[in-house]
Specification:
With 407 residues, the chain is α/β, with parallel strands linked by helices. The chain folds into 2 domains: 184 residues, Glycogen Phosphorylase B (Rossmann fold, 3-Layer(aba) Sandwich), CATH 3.40.50.2000; 175 residues, Glycogen Phosphorylase B (Rossmann fold, 3-Layer(aba) Sandwich). It is 47% helix and 16% strand. Helix 11 links the parallel strand 12 and strand 13. The longest helix is centred in the last third of the chain and has 35 residues. It is globular, with a radius of gyration of 22 Å. The C terminus is likely disordered.
C-alpha cells in the first residue's frame, strides 16, 4: 500500500508558488507516494494523479476547512511544507499562524514534517520571527532555499537544516517553453510588484529611458493574479497605460485571465534581457537562457544573487530612483554575453547539484516516514491554541465584526 503525503503551501494565484506545487507533487507521485496538496483553491480538484483540497484560510469557511484538513492529517504518513516563503509576515500577519496550524496539527497526531525549499523572512515583527523559530523547532528535517533563511533559524533548527537549490531548479528542460525571438527590435522584459517604497512614476520614467537609450520595446510580464486584489497584472496594466501615454513602445503579449507558466515562460524567452522583482522570475530566466537583472525588493532575492555569485546583476529597490534602473539596465545590456556565460555556468552547476540533493531529500523522506518521533502533545496543543486564537481574532476583524480585541 502506498504511503500518503500531505503537501502544504501558499499555492493558488502566483506562478512561482504554483510551479513549486506542481514540481514537488509530481516528484512525489513519480516516487510512488499518494499525494494530497493543500492549496488556496476553493473546492477539490484532481491534477496529475494527485488531489488538491482547500487550505484553511481566513474566510467564512475557515473552521470547516480546518476540520477537513485535520481528517486528512490523521490519515497521512508525512507532511511536507512544499516550498515558498511561508515563514514571513510582510503580506499578512496571519501567514505564520496558518503554517503553525499545519505543523502543530501534524505533531499532535505524531506525523513527521519536512520543510522542503522554504524561505524565511522578512519579518516586520520580532514576535512573528520568534514564532517562526519555535514552529521550525518542531519540524523533523529542514531544507531552506538560501543562506539568509538559514541564518534566521534557531540553533536547534539549524542543526537539522541544509541549504538546497530552490525546487524550481528541478524543472525538466523539455517543459520550458523557450520560443525563439523573431523581433529585430531589442525587447526588455520586466515583472514588477506594487511596492510601498517605489513610485509608479519613477518606474515609468525608468522604462521610458530604457526604451529610448536601447531603442527597445518593453514587455510587461505578470507573475501573480488575483480576482480580488488584481496582483501584478492589475499593477502592470496601470503601468502599461502610462507608458502608452508617454509614447513608449510596449510589446503586446496575450495572457489568459490568469497567466499560465507556459505563457510566462514563452514571454520571457522572447526577451533580450529580463528584469525581475520576483525570486522565481530570476530562476526561470536563467533556466530559459535569458540574461536577468534582479530588482532586490526583499532579502531572498539579494541572498539568491549573493549565493550564486551574481550580485553585480542586482539592483536594490531604493536605487531605482533618478533613472537608476535605466542606468543599471543599460550597463547590463552592454555586457549580455558575459551575463549569459555566468548564468550558463550557474545553470549547469545547479543541474548537477540538484541530482545529488534530490537523492538526499528523498532518502530523508523515506527515513522520516519510517521513524516514529514522540513530541510533547501538551506543548504542541498549547502553541496550536495560541495560533488559532490569533487567527480567530483576525477572522473576526476581516468579517467586519466589531471587536476591541488586541491582535
Amino acid at each position: 500500500m502506498n504511503k500518503n503525503v500531505l503537501q502544504f503551501g501558499f499555492y493558488g494565484g502566483n506562478i512561482g508558488d504554483d510551479l513549486l506545487m506542481t514540481i514537488i507533487a509530481d516528484e512525489l507521485t513519480v516516487k510512488g507516494y499518494d499525494v494530497t496538496v493543500v492549496a488556496n483553491i476553493r473546492g477539490t480538484t484532481l491534477k496529475n494523479n494527485y488531489k488538491i483540497i482547500q487550505s484553511p484560510v481566513l474566510s467564512p469557511y475557515f473552521h470547516l476547512d480546518y476540520l477537513k484538513f485535520v481528517s486528512i492529517v490523521r490519515k497521512c504518513d508525512l507532511v511536507i511544507l512544499g516550498g515558498g516563503g511561508v515563514f514571513q509576515d510582510t503580506h499578512s500577519e496571519s501567514s505564520i499562524c496558518l503554517v503553525g496550524l499545519v505543523i502543530l496539527t501534524a505533531k499532535i497526531f505524531n506525523k513527521p514534517v519536512i520543510a522542503l525549499g522554504n524561505g524565511l523572512g522578512p519579518f516586520k515583527s520580532l514576535k512573528n520571527h520568534q514564532l517562526s523559530k519555535r514552529l521550525l523547532d518542531y519540524v523533523d528535517q529542514i531544507f531552506v532555499r538560501d543562506s539568509y533563511s538559514l541564518n534566521l533559524l534557531s540553533n536547534k533548527a539549524q542543526a537539522k537544516a541544509k541549504v538546497i537549490y530552490d525546487p524550481v531548479w528541478w524543472i525538466k528542460q523539455h517543459k520550458l517553453q523557450n520560443v525563439r525571438k523573431i523581433s529585430m527590435v531589442p525587447v526588455i522584459g520586466i515583472t514588477l510588484r506594487e511596492w510601498p517604497s517605489i513610485n509608479e512614476g519613477d518606474i515609468c520614467n525608468n522604462l521610458q529611458e530604457i526604451s529610448k537609450k536601447l531603442s527597445a520595446e518593453i514587455a510587461l510580464i505578470p507573475f501573480e493574479f488575483s480576482e480580488k486584489v488584481g496582483g501584478d497584472r492589475k499593477y502592470l496594466d496601470r503601468i502599461k497605460q502610462r507608458l502608452i501615454s508617454m509614447k513608449v513602445p510596449v510589446k503586446e503579449i496575450s495572457f489568459a485571465s490568469f497567466p499560465s507558466f507556459t505563457e510566462v515562460s514563452e514571454a520571457i524567452s522572447q526577451c533580450d534581457l529580463f528584469l525581475s522583482m520576483r525570486f522565481h522570475g530570476v530562476i526561470l530566466s536563467i533556466l530559459l537562457d535569458v540574461p536577468v537583472g534582479a530588482i532586490a525588493c526583499s532579502p531572498k532575492i539579494t541572498s539568491l544573487m549573493n549565493d550564486n555569485n551574481l550580485n553585480e546583476y542586482r539592483i536594490g529597490i531604493t536605487d531605482i530612483e533618478n533613472n537608476g534602473l535605466a542606468a543599471f539596465t543599460e550597463q547590463m545590456f552592454k555586457n549580455l554575453e558575459k551575463v549569459k556565460l555566468k548564468q550558463c555556468i550557474l545553470k549547469n552547476t545547479a543541474a548537477h547539484a540538484v541530482i545529488e540533493q534530490k537523492k538526499e531529500i528523498w532518502s530523508d523522506v523515506d527515513v522520516s516516514m519510517g521513524s516514529k518521533r514522540n513530541y510533547s502533545k501538551i506543548n504542541s496543543l498549547s502553541l496550536l491554541t495560541y495560533c488559532m486564537g490569533r487567527l480567530n481574532k483576525r477572522l473576526l476583524l476581516r468579517l467586519n465584526v466589531k471587536s476591541e480585541l488586541n491582535i
